[in-house]
Amino acid sequence: MNQTVISSLLPVILLIALGLVVGKRGWIRDTSVKDLANLVFLVLSPALLFHAMSTVKVEQLSLWPVASYFLGAGVIFGGTLLVMGFDRTSVVTAIANTYSNTAMIGIPLVGLAYGPAGMVTLLTLVSLHSLVLLTLATVAVELALAREQAASGQGTRRHIVAVVGRAVRNAVIHPVPIPIIVGLLWAQTGWQMPEVIDKPIQWLGQAFGPLALVMVGVTLAHTRVGTHFKGALLLAVVKNLLHPVLVFGIGRLLGLSGLPLTVMVVAAALPMGANVFLFSQRYKAAEDLITAAVAVSTGIGIATLSLIMLWMG
Fold first, then answer.
1. pTM assigned to the model
2. 3-state SS assignment for residue 102
């Protein structure tokens, strides 16, 4: 196996495995997972994202690689609705097929494999990831619910403008895009961050990767796949393999190559993100299947990521 793939994936595997052991032995109980997740997402993640973008100039950013990711996701999202029909379950399945774990797994992995330049490309995607995909899914599922209610004679739901507005607000006012935007704005000022402030932010950001990966393992230890394995495996194959292949093809059509294309393909190959599970819970659609799919997608993600990274060279 390529040395870069080994050196990038092995630390990820070891930390997730450590989390599995910790979870299985009960050192971190199921009731404590939410508190640790809050620490990761509300404290460590913003510090890392701000620090990573605080030295990036706007001219370094490119939206073409990000466009290839979202176009690939759009093809799979629309295809899922065509195959399954338009209802809550199909929308939830569609977001499961397209929403990557760009934070907890993506940031540590891309940082190890592709360095600061790769991180700039990934964080450009991260800043828009939830905004685009969760807004799309929210609008679609609200339309599906309105259709269900109209068919059952229960009246109409909120106006679609209100639905879109709420979805956009929730996606923007979030601990992921805000520190990216603030860090980018800070970089444009040219000001130097005082070391007494910069150093603690840097330390917090450095703690994100290891703790986030351990948390992935702990979450897997408390997840039961049960009778949904076959359905979960199908969703995982679509997410982990079909999505990156589509992104690669679309990226080539857009004239992309080199590191930007590689990072987007690897981002598309990442396992399903935790927001997929939360989305299914919120709209009470296919909760058990999606829970199993997130676990299976993460479980086979090491193998599928290895294949994709080797393929991209």
1. 0.81
2. helix
Q: How many whole angstroms separate alpha carbon 298 and alpha carbon 101?
A: 9
Distance CA 76, CA 142 (A): 19
CB neighbours of 150 closer than 8 A, spacing ≥ 6? Answer: 156
Residues 6+ apart with CB under 8 A from 229: 292, 296
Q: Residue 30 in 3-state DSSP?
A: helix
Give 188-231 pLDDT, tens digit per residue. 888 888 889 999 999 998 888 888 888 888 877 877 777 788 99
Size of the chain in residues: 313
- Token readout for 277 is 């599970």
Q: pLDDT tens digits for 98-129?
A: 999 988 889 899 988 899 889 889 988 988 88
Q: In the numeric block, which tokens belong to residue 104?
A: 């907890």
Q: Specify the DSSP class assigned to residue 27.
A: S
Q: Count CA atoms within 13 Å of residue 140 on its CB side.
A: 23
Q: Which two tokens stand for residue 17?
A: 């495995």
CA distance 36 to 34: 5
Q: Is there a contact between 6 and 136 (Cβ–Cβ < 8 Å)? A: no
Is the distance from CB of 267 to CB of 110 less than 8 angstroms? yes
* CATH code that applies to domain 17-188+196-312: 1.20.1530.20
For the chain, what are the domain ranges?
A: 17-188+196-312
